[in-house]
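Incident review: delayed structure delivery

Summary: a single-chain prediction request sat in the queue longer than the usual turnaround. Root cause was a stuck worker, restarted by the on-call engineer. No data loss occurred. The affected request and its eventual output are reproduced below so the record is complete for anyone auditing the incident later.

Affected input:
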Amino acid sequence: MDQRSVEKSSGELTRENQLTAERAWTMAEIVNRRETHQLLLVDTRVAALRRTGDLLRRAGHDVLEAGSFDEAKRVLVQRLPALMISSLRLAAFNGLHLVHLARLARPEISAIIVSTSADAVLQSEAERVGASLLVEPVPPTTLLALISQLLEASASLDDHRGIERRRAERRSAGGRDVGMERRIADRRISVGVAHRDSGLT
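Output delivered after worker restart:
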């Protein structure tokens, strides 16, 4: 096999590997985004939980509901929602505790804490954990606008991280492909030389 044939085979190998990698990256993105826009809604008040959940679903959101701190913990173990909306009061715990817990599983999760009252200390605590604070009664338009804003910011961050990850994977995959191609090319050239020396070409 001449050098051009070797280069052609190497090029085909590279294209095949790139296509395989692209398919893998695409599937990974699909799996990764299945829960990208899921919202976790946490409230011990059954009527408030149902009312807000219905509002969010009518707005097109995929909503997970939890009626207690412990139920929310179980949800967070099994799923990774992009945004959590929690009432401040959750029996022995509060929504800020839940934000801390959620960020152990998903550091970039967005959070909204809903309280019946607000003060400077609570506002400071919410800001410290990176959560938005809303005070009831919350107009539906205000809640939906804040959710859209937080999801958009989260999606932009995820897209940036995805681009950087794919670049790193391409560099890594490219490095492996080059090494493989060189070994194949060297072996084919060696076989060609051996055939020539033995008079078989």
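Verification: The helical segments are 3-33, 46-58, 69-78, 95-105, 120-128, 140-198.
Action items: add queue-age alerting; document worker restart procedure.
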